[in-house]
Write a structure and sequence with these properties.
Elements: H1 5-26, H2 37-64, H3 69-94, H4 100-117
Helix pairs in contact: 1-2, 2-3
């Protein structure tokens, strides 16, 4: 049986995600340094798989909208990190350790953005 191209792409994405997770765990990233090894690997693999999936989905959606190839690549590179942040925070809260400093900075940024978007009113 000849594998279909999307099946090959899924296998490559899985291999890249596992290798990337092993490299990140081996480098003892501060965020996962004190987690058990299997939890840290699971956290990084899930981050990388979801990120690659979101990037591919955004790129395909833009391609189906009949945008130019270089524009779809540029927009997917710009949009994926912005859309991935909430997913990453949920994964960190569920599997990893929530970063208190990041949440403090995020809440400050949310207050600033809310005051700009809300016409000068600060969100409560």
């Amino acid at each position: 049986m000849v594998p279909t191209p999307w099946l090959v792409n899924i296998k490559v994405a899985l291999v890249v995600a596992v290798l990337g997770a092993l490299i990140l765990v081996a480098s003892e990233a501060d965020h996962t340094a004190d987690l058990p090894i299997l939890v840290a690997i699971t956290l990084w693999v899930s981050h990388l798989i979801i990120f690659l999936s979101m990037f591919t989905a955004i790129r395909l959606a833009l391609w189906r909208a009949r945008l130019r190839r270089d524009l779809t690549l540029l927009l997917s590179i710009l949009l994926t990190p912005c859309l991935f942040v909430p997913v990453s925070l949920v994964l960190d809260a569920g599997l990893g350790k929530p970063d208190a400093e990041f949440y403090a900075e995020l809440s400050f940024a949310a207050i600033c953005l809310g005051s700009i978007v809300g016409g000068g009113r600060i969100l409560r």
